[in-house]
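COURSE: Structural Biology Practicum
ASSIGNMENT: Worksheet 4, Part C
STUDENT ID: 0417
INSTRUCTIONS: Below are two proteins. For each, the amino acid sequence is given first, followed by its structure token string. Answer the questions at the end about the second protein only.

PROTEIN I
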Amino acid sequence: MGGSLWISHGATEAVFRGRSFITVLPLALLLPTVRVSAQLIGSPLDCKTCVCASNIVSCSKMNLTNVPTHLPEYTAVLDLSFNTITRLRAEWTPVPLSRLHSLLLSHNSLTFLSSEAFANVKKLQYLDLSSNCIRQLDELIFEPLEHLEVLLLYSNRISQIDRTAFSGLNSLQRLYLSHNQISRFPLELVKERSRLDSLRLLDVSSNRIKALSLNELQALPAWIKNGLYFHNNPLPCSCEVHEMVARWYLKELSSATDFRGSHTCVLPGQQKEKIAILDLNKVFLNCSEVTAMDRKAFLEQFLILDCDTRERNMTKSWVLPGNIPVPPAYKTALMRPEDGSLQIGPLNVEDSGVYTCYATSESFNETLYVTVMVFNSTESGGLENLKTAYTTLIGCLFSLVMVLIYLYLTPCRSACCPGQGLEKSDPRDSLHSSTVSISHAHVETGQERGDGGGFANKHGAFLQPKDQLEQNGRLNPIGEEDEEWQGDNRERRRSDAESVSSACSDTPMVV
């Protein structure tokens, strides 16, 4: 009996031990799951290890692999930098943190960002995701952050950015994307129709961008270009790139002046040698030197002068050449209130000169000078001048043709024309009268000389046949020997000689 009782007691103890083992075994199996869940979800916030100062929670350099749970709802600043967090899931904060405005996750090992990671922190203004291992930015990933002003994504491995990744960031002012693997310039962020309206700094330096839309970048307002950093990218060298960077440098834009030596380009060739963009006009391409831009215009044109300041929303005023302020009712100069530009025209030559724009704000003052040169012609003046030249040439040719027709085709009505006046017996109408030289002394004496057997008054000498070729190199038009004078020894009148001489002025006078 006692033995049986002992056996029953032993059996009962064995059964109890078996049940205990069966009960403990599932608990032991659940321990890894609990540990994994703790790693995925994170442990509750411990203000003994983290710093909890009022509304600031700092768990920097705590070797955390996940975001702590049970964060106070009044948290305004959360610092989780310098840890080993790899994934930012949607459930990292199950309750909304409506007062959180700064989240620091730099220097972790982030490779994944959930599309709903920021659904419960919509009031964020400052987000630091720099120095991680993020490779891509999916569509609409930052859309809930409509109040975000600063986004730091530099020093990651980003190579793909969806065009809608930054949609909804209506308050974003500064975006840092430097030191990544980006190969496309995000022009949609600064382009007129699709740009983020408040964005004033975009840093895409030290990436893999090989092409820029130069014309569209040049057309941007100065307050955007002043904060557009694209240095240290493998851009191919060209005079167009040199011209754009040089103009930004002359305008003293911070993006060009602060990193003057870092604006480099790659020379063609196998060695891929880099050179400073501003030295292209001296070393390689011999690009033209860029000077300050002046505005050129023509008569009767209208011209708009931009007061393109380096800051936005400044108070602007204009002064005309001669230091004359623009009056409100000025006829040829009107300041446009929407952008502060000045419209002048219709232009006259007197409108040439230096126009000055004074821009002021609470923290910054800027003065811009625009030199206007008005040419004394219309915009199509070159074509009109060419037409005028052709018209003048045609008029000259026509006049020359008319002169030739007059000289050679018009019937000769003069007594000295060839073939005329041979039948006339009056010696005063003879061609030879053109060779008569009136001598006042002989006219006054009127005496005959008989010893030479010559004419009575001997008023002129007649050409001999052998001398006919000596008259301007031409033969005597009549082709005959000189005729003797007929009639009595009366004097020829002076008026007759003068009239004949004037009628044939091209015949030389022989004395």
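PROTEIN II
(use this one for the questions)
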Amino acid sequence: MGRLNSETRAEMSPMMGAKDSVTMKKDLGVMNGVAIIVGIIIGSGIFVSPKGVLVYSGSIGLSLIIWALCGLLSMVGALCYAELGTMIPRSGGDFAYIHESFGPLPAFLFLWVALLIIMPTGNAIQALTFAYYMLQPFYNTCHPPDDVVRLVAAMVICFLTFINCYNVRWSSTVQEVFTGAKIVALIIIIGTGVYVLGTGDFSKYSQPFEGTRLDPGRIALALYSGLFSYAGWNYLNFVVEELKDPFRSLPRAIYISLPLVTVVYLLANVAYFAVLSPTEVLASNAVAVTFGNRMLGVMSWMMPFFVACSTFGGLNGGIFASSRLFFVGAREGCLPVALAMINVNKLTPVPSLVFLCFLTLCMLVTSDVYSLINYISFVESLFITMSTAGLLYLRWKLPEAPRPIKVNIALPIIFLVVCLFLVTFPIYMTPVEVGVACGIILSGVPVYLVGVLWRRNVSCLDGLMDSMNNAIQKLTNSVIDTSKMD
């Protein structure tokens, strides 16, 4: 294993990457980046529960407008992050940008929430969804047993963690293959919808705006639901140090992937509403499966299979990207330094991956993880708002800093206004969820004071941190014998 030592960190420019001799390999090109973005974005959302947008928008017409608007907003946000990612060419995404703009405490709070809830919970949900739909064909008359679902979910988490530890190329290959599988599933859905509309059956679109709800709070919650299905548009920034040519690869991957996802999502929803009524969509927990049962006959088994493939690829991409966030956090001294170690043979952040695997497995103890995602949606919007504000702040603070990509100033301003809207209006619509989310954020303040600031001045904490480092190394060695990974 290799890691960044204190001298290396002291020599680092805040705008540059580390100069240590052991770094992760630059092994990802444009198409790998496209596969990562598309593979992470197209997870279970578009197949399992697109009804969230319809619940708050109230009509088919406004629902489709929300889906298009979410795609446009994701594109604008991704372009803003492209400027940040090439100006601050370090992995870690929001953590690196908030740290550079507003200092270590806000950056640590983002890392704390990501560590505690966002990353492991999101990965656990993907794994549980994969397990449920893989097992469904074997339990035609009932739901798969909960313990069996958890066991299969744990197995796939461990398997994909091993793949990511062993070889970056293997991980990217898995991502490309399963991204292709989910695109095939969506092509089947879209093709079926085109066939129905081609027969002249437009009955479901006879009154597309009936029941429309224009309350600002509901619009914000509808955007939340849509943007949740687009989540992942910023994940390529977590691995920018592993792109072969980030100044070229990052923006090109964004230009290809975001319009592709937006068009596919829109057409998929058009297909859903061509076959299913709004009442049927709202009554379904898995719209794609309901769609398949209605239209595919004996081939309806394909939809659960493709949903499983989709979540498998989404989980792989989530493990790949989120482990880099913890790696960067440890490298900056905000987490145990063992998480900043890299396997010298495979050039992968093995301790960070194993630690993430452990946290994700802990999330399988409870099945009530979906409510946690509802609580944390506000937090994600809050920190994206902070990163976007950081872009504008750095434009003022460092106007002459190198910016290989510089977007029109109107884009970050528009995106910031939208983010503020998304953060503000749900406060009165869902005050309990917002309150819990704020509590989770603030709980990181004492952890930062003790674990980061005081640790530098209180020698008795050094032993505690050394014990944590040793425990993480032992956990890593017990899962993967890195000395044999030649």
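ANSWER KEY EXCERPT:
Q1: The radius of gyration is 22 Å.
Q2: Residues 104-135 form the longest helix (32 residues).
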